[in-house]
Amino acid sequence: VRAALDKVGLLGREKAWPAELSGGEQQRVGIARAIVGMPPLLLADEPTGNLDPDLSLELFELFRTLNSMGVTVLIASHDLTLIRSMGQRVLVLSDGRLVDDISAEEVGGGRQ
How many domains does the chain have? Predict the structure, then answer.
């Protein structure tokens, strides 16, 4: 558990109550809970929604690290800059349906 909290930048906050944490910290606790058992698949819905840009980049770096360790990371996000930075496969959805399967380099090219 401590290692997971360290990965999301919350080591030392394990005794804090939810009301004592910011929205971004609460979001990172949720991510730590999800990765503590090293699942084969991690689903993240708008994981950077309550985070500042620097923490968002750190979180995406964590997702990259997890992916390099064999974890499939599926991220739902509207942040095209962060999606492009992942450098991976991008599935584009519209009204809950898959409409495209593109590379990260193609994001923002008018196909979404």
Answer: 1
Average pLDDT of the residues in 51-72 = 84
Alpha-carbon distance of 15 to 5, in angstroms, equals: 11
Main-chain dihedrals φ then ψ at residue 45, nearest 5 degrees: -100, 110
| CATH number of the domain bearing residue 39 | 3.40.50.300
Quote the pTM value. 0.72
Cβ contact 41:49 at 8 Å? no
**Residue 37 structural domain:** 2-77
- Over pLDDT 90: what percentage of the chain? 20
Considering Cα of 72, then 83, then 47, then 97, what sign does the dihedral take?
A: negative
